[in-house]
Amino acid sequence: MTDFTMKTGDDGVAIITWDVPNKSMNVLSMEGAVALDGLIDQALADDAVKGIVITSGKKDFAAGMDLNVIAGMKDQGGAQGVFDGVMTLHHMLRKIERAGMDPKTLKGGKPIASALPGTALGIGLELPLATHRIFAADNPKAKIGLPEIMVGIFPGSGGTTRLARKLGAMMAAPFLLEGKLSDPKKAKSAGIIDEVVENPLEAARAWVLAAKDADLVKPWDAKGYKMPGGEPFHPAGFMTFVGASAMVHGKTMGVYPAAKALLSAVYEGAMVPFDQALKIEARWFTHVLMNPSSTAMIRSLFINKEALEKGANRPEAPDQTVKKVGILGAGMMGAGIAYVSAMAGIEVVLIDAQQASADKGKALSEGLLDKAISRKKSTPEKKAEVLARITATTDYAALEGCDLIVEAVFEDPAVKAEVTKKAEAVIPADAIFATNTSTLPISDLAKASTRPEQFIGIHFFSPVDKMLLVEIIKGRETGPVAVAKALDFVRQIRKTPIVVNDERFFYANRCIIPYINEGIRMVAEGVNPTLVENAAKMMGMPLGPLQLVDETSIDLGVKIAKATKAAMGDAYPDGAVDEVLFWMADQGRMGRKSNAGFYAYDDAGKRQGLWEGLDAQFPRAEDQPDLHDVQHRLMFAQTLEAVRALEEGVLEDIREGDVGAILGWGFAPWTGGPFGWLDMLGAGRAVEICDRLTAAHGDRFKAPQMLRDMAAKGDSFYGRRAAA
């Protein structure tokens, strides 16, 4: 079976069906594009064909272009290969758009419509935009949009040019620059698609049979076309582009090349004829794809993320699909885990010491579902169905039949040990027990279990319903079935897993704590806090270290610092940090939750700016450091811990290190993660910076031996992985 097939009915309408074999959703390969091009030629040349409808053999239309193909264009032909491949797609889509019409009279073409049964993303929308009419099913679960910007590229198959010319730069901006996705009705309201109907295939067929020559001419091909909102040289259009440029720089801080290139393609393309604009789009797309940031983002946010979600590092074990999960502790974390589990169709037993607490935990799900209903993203029927799956109780006997337990009680080993024993007295012999913890060693917690091979760590990030990452931690005695169970569970609840070995702070917290600490340490040194925060954001970090500690709470930082100091003794390295952190806690400034932290907040909890009291306690030094020095300190504080985690075997796969860093704490996504960033710098350059930072600031910046060895050999992390 090929990706595209064509069948012409007795009414003269050729139905081209897109159905990629062995894929849950259609993606376009170059072979598929060639096949579609051939069918279009065949239909246009056949006098018996009156018009064409392009649809899908799947419940959705398409998930986009196969990004592996895009990466292959670059690897095989460099910039010229990318440009030629993109222009091949442009020629095919332009052929669909012109549909055999006379180029002078714009008459004699054959109508071509799109019938979208469901989701249409990326090329799955760029292809319909080239057709003459887009019909979508009235399917509120379907998503329509151009999300390429989220993985470091932009719509490069005509979507950027067509959408900007169809809607105008201002109206197209949310869909192009932010990757906004809409359901079909909202997409129609925005002007992206034309019709929302019950049966898009039949509606498209009827339109094709009734279409006239004028219905086939796109606005930009008609005489006298003017871009909605004004061209760049029009006063209104000029202000649009000035504002868009400022918005792009404000959001990207100049480190995401795709957004700037997209805006350049729209700006330059708006001043030339349409076909020339497509070439400009292709050149800018090629420019972005040749940027190492684009390669790194595609690798981590698409290829590696997808591989991990499909079980790239899953041990061989029978299917471990979870049927009934018991959750111990109905606080915010346990309640969040209950919600995502019930949403995934899993039966949930939510246990707490007090019935009122258990009921409050279940109420979190009710609140989230009510919010979804108010936003028309759910229904009362769905709410009732999900809530019916959650049993809130104090009775451990209700855990009978659970094949997975997720313990989410206080970060206290004694409390965790107590509930472990209570649960194991009831649950089946083959059930897996997972402890949710962010800092406590799994191997130590497993001592409370009578079956340590079935005991595993599972670290959710808060808030559970929004955060995509789950960190799975193997204890010293954890067996492969427990790992498989945890991975299968994470897949069921639609999160992305990484698997690491047991060591204090595991992987994510091991890296993020030094980032926070370095920012606080600089405050103690008299570095301007504004410089610290902005240096981080200018490197692409979503939050500066001071804002991040406010969000996670300062008292939690104090608790972690005290526990770490007790465990490490004289080797504890962060005394200078504690001076600031403990003083803040003594002032009652516990962060956002207390409306007082490194930042000041108004009564509504809105951040107002850095707290002026910092200057009084920690006066600013007369000589402020260079911006790059601050940035290097903040970035290397994280990345060196990632390398050490790999060197020590805590992290087994650099893909997990990169994906986990981006999804777990927002490590500058434009870099593709800490290992992607070090590969961009080059190991030799990274070691030079480490040596300079070590001389100026101490051994915490000492380059790991692994990095020095790579520098000596001219190796890179992903180069080593490919060779292996």
UniProtKB/TrEMBL annotation:
Alphabetical UniProt keywords? Fatty acid metabolism, Lipid degradation, Lipid metabolism, Lyase, Multifunctional enzyme, NAD, Oxidoreductase
Enumerate the catalysed reactions.
Answer: a (3S)-3-hydroxyacyl-CoA + NAD(+) = a 3-oxoacyl-CoA + NADH + H(+)
In which pathway does this enzyme or protein participate?
Answer: Lipid metabolism; fatty acid beta-oxidation
Q: What is this protein called?
A: 3-hydroxyacyl-CoA dehydrogenase
Q: Which residues form a coiled coil?
A: none
Q: Which GO terms describe its molecular function?
A: enoyl-CoA hydratase activity; long-chain (3S)-3-hydroxyacyl-CoA dehydrogenase (NAD+) activity; NAD+ binding
* Gene3D superfamilies, per the entry: 1.10.1040.50, 2-enoyl-CoA Hydratase, Chain A, domain 1, NAD(P)-binding Rossmann-like Domain
Question: Looking at the keywords, is Transcription present?
Answer: no
A single Pfam family it belongs to is ECH_1
State the family it belongs to. In the central section; belongs to the 3-hydroxyacyl-CoA dehydrogenase family.
**GO BP annotations, alphabetical order:** fatty acid beta-oxidation
Leader sequence range is none
Q: Where is the 3-hydroxyacyl-CoA dehydrogenase C-terminal domain positioned along the sequence?
A: 506-601
3-hydroxyacyl-CoA dehydrogenase NAD binding domain: from which residue to which, for each copy? 324-502
Which InterPro entries does this one have? 3-OHacyl-CoA_DH_NAD-bd, 3HC_DH_C, 6-PGluconate_DH-like_C_sf, ClpP/crotonase-like_dom_sf, Enoyl-CoA_hydra/iso, FA_oxidation_alpha_subunit, NAD(P)-bd_dom_sf
